[in-house]
């Protein structure tokens, strides 16, 4: 899955619409302290479905919306769009019929987040599964934030295994297994309710 472009609008310090073209190969972001390097990486994680405010260095998810400065007022919403180049048809089957895939996440104060995949409303789970199936996502080891290398060196074996599983592309299978277990549990609960009803009728 090749990321083509990241578009930010009202996300943290990126108050004006900003386009970042992502070229082939490894991408490094450089710039003076406080210019927004980490905000860019956070925008990428956020549009892929990150749901922990702490991972965005905030207390609540609305903290990602431009908070205003002495010269500019706060914004009411933030939006990030990630465009994926799908000309090689590497995307998961559910979205594999287009050359490009636009994933949009928008957050509005007091109204929470909404997602769209190629213009159609989607759930956070749909977006997370899309990336998990492609062995990437908000927790992908391909996105290296500041301090992560030393964390990795000092990590416990269990955390290191998670990183290896992500890299091996099996984390999507864990998510699907979890989903299947939830469905199974709910089917079992329904069955036992049917049994109770049948007992009462007998
Ligand atoms: P460093 O090299 O010091 O780690 P950086 O380039 O990674 O810095 P970021 O941490 O991405 O910089 O950006 C920090 C800037 O983003 C700060 O100026 C901070 O005020 C601004 N910022 C963060 N959240 C918001 C927000 N919700 N609204 C407006 N500005 C914000």
From TrEMBL:
Q: Where does ATP bind?
A: 32-39
Q: Coiled coil: which residue ranges?
A: 170-202
The protein's location, in the record's own words, is: Cytoplasm
- Going by the entry's taxonomy, the superkingdom of the source organism is recorded as Bacteria
- Report the family membership: Belongs to the SMC family.
> Subunit comment for this entry?
Homodimer.
Domain comment?
A: Contains large globular domains required for ATP hydrolysis at each terminus and a third globular domain forming a flexible hinge near the middle of the molecule. These domains are separated by coiled-coil structures.
Main function: Required for chromosome condensation and partitioning.
Protein name from the UniProt record: Chromosome partition protein Smc
Gene symbol of the encoding locus: smc
């Amino acid at each position: 899955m090749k990321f083509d472009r990241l578009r930010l609008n009202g996300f943290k310090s990126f108050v004006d619409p900003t386009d970042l073209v992502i070229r082939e190969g490894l991408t490094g972001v450089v710039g003076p302290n406080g210019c927004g390097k980490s905000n860019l990486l956070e925008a990428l994680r956020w549009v892929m479905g990150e749901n922990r405010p702490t991972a965005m260095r905030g207390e609540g998810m609305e903290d990602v919306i431009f908070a205003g400065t002495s010269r500019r007022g706060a914004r009411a919403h933030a939006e990030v769009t990630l465009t994926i180049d799908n000309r090689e048809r590497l995307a998961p089957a559910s979205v594999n019929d287009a050359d490009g895939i636009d994933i949009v996440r928008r957050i509005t104060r007091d109204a929470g987040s909404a997602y769209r995949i190629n213009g159609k409303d989607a759930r956070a789970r749909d977006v997370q599964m899309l990336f998990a199936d492609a062995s990437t996502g908000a927790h992908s080891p391909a996105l290296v934030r500041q301090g992560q290398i030393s964390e990795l060196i000092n990590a416990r074996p269990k955390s290191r295994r998670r990183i290896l599983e992500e890299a091996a592309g099996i984390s999507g299978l864990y998510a699907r297994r979890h989903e299947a277990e939830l469905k199974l549990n709910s089917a079992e609960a329904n069955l036992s309710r049917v049994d109770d009803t049948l007992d009462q009728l007998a």
